[in-house]
Amino acid sequence: MAPVTSGDNQSKQRIPRDTVRKSLISLIKWKRKQVSDQKEPISGDVDDFIYLLLTLKKIPNKDFTKSPNKIPIPHSLQTSPEFSRSCLIIDDRPKPNSQKLTVEFADKKIKSLGIPISKILKLSKLKSDYRSFESKMELLNSFDIFLADRRVIDMLPGILGKVFYKNKRKIPVPVELKRDGDWKEEIEMGFCCSLLWLSKGTCSVVKVGKFEGMEVEEIVDNVVAAVGGVVEVVPKKWVGVKSFHLKFFDSLALPIYQRKEDLIRQNGITKVF
């Protein structure tokens, strides 16, 4: 379970758990009706994630939108690592005064540490073998989660393209893969976090729950923790936040927090959390 941070405590003060719970119950009720009304089973990869929608007061500076931020959450959105299909992208570029990282070295290390990684993929092979749309789609659908050496994270949007980054559902999680580093801790943290990639606009999303396989209180825990984690990495922290909503990919967004000034202006509400 992720440790409680000052951001968590502030999010609890500003957004009561009961507010989060009520919104979640409404969303889940809506989703159940959608599923029950579905006449034919949906084929393909179904998005049943619950998202925390962040709206900022202003468009963030480019420095804030270059790389994804890991947001710790207490309840993982992934199937247990040993049952997940996972792909680890390593940086095999030659480095001055350092040995090149090879698949053989990485494979030996993760096996010795008991890390359940399904496939190790070199950056060079990723660039050479996955150029076409079809090959990228095949790669995307072959794994549940992707992790990548932090040193190559900024290169991946140009290599993987819109197939991975348009809906941002399987963006590779950045991990530190120094030869003598703690790979086990880094990769385990990668399995137990969500990602926030600030957009070039004012709205961004981070996954906080799943329709299937999670209890409401687990998702509430994740929302509270995610709000705290998000606020820690956005420009000006709470001052820069305009609102938080919860939603499914295809649902309306239900508000759980809005700036006092906006509430007064829009609805004449004088009491806010």
Automatic annotation (TrEMBL):
Q: Which CDD domains match?
A: Ribosomal_L1
Q: Which GO terms describe its molecular function?
A: RNA binding
Coiled coil ranges (UniProt) are none
Task: Enumerate the InterPro entries for this protein.
Answer: eL8/uL1-like, Ribosomal_uL1-like, Ribosomal_uL1/biogenesis, Ribosomal_uL1_3-a/b-sand
SUPFAM superfamilies, per this entry? Answer: Ribosomal protein L1 (SSF56808)
Give the residue spans that cross the bilayer.
none
Task: Identify this protein by name.
Answer: Ribosomal protein L1
Supply the source organism for this entry: Lactuca virosa
